Amino acid sequence: MILDTTPPTFASAEPAGQTTPPLLIAFHRDYSSVESEINDYRPAADAGWRVVMPQSVQLLSPSQFWWGDWDIATKQVARDYQYLLKKSPFDTNRIVTVGMGEGGTVAFWAATSRTIPACGVILFSQSSLDFPQVEQSLQGNAHLRIYLLSNQGDNSLKGFTYFLRAKGVTYAYEEYEGAAYEFPSDFDVRLKRALDFITEPLDI
After folding, report:
1. Domain interval for residue 101
2. What pLDDT shows up at residue 204?
3. 119 with 198: CB under 8 angstroms?
């Protein structure tokens, strides 16, 4: 299996002066790579978070990767998280997953399946969630805080809010101007706001 021959690979951004910081696990989009996206998440490190982005083992081209084989993707997420637990200390009570597009799907699954024991999820720009599957995934996950960032004109995440309300999940929803599958120009501000929303209500 490809996981047996491909070791865990991450891009990361480290906060200054913290021994057990909160952890943000970001998942790149399909047809992308950690090198293409890690810089967009660096503002979280400036706010005190350890940021890690696992590289999918599923190669499309020398510079593009994807999460297309779901069986491999889910096994990789479990393997990579166990690797992180052994590699460096972080606050296991404050873990957030985040992703755009298919990376958002991976982030949502990782948290709701509790493969990664996250306290919250950030989804943005057309995360490809299947609503019936989402509804089932939310069972027993009312503890999660979910932050939705949707580019204007995309109704997929707006529709997701109905399921969140029905399941009693605490969430926030905001829209931004910009093209689908592109980071908003003020993503640094929005990312920090999302992290504050997820962690501030927690009594930890």
Report:
1. 2-199
2. 44
3. yes
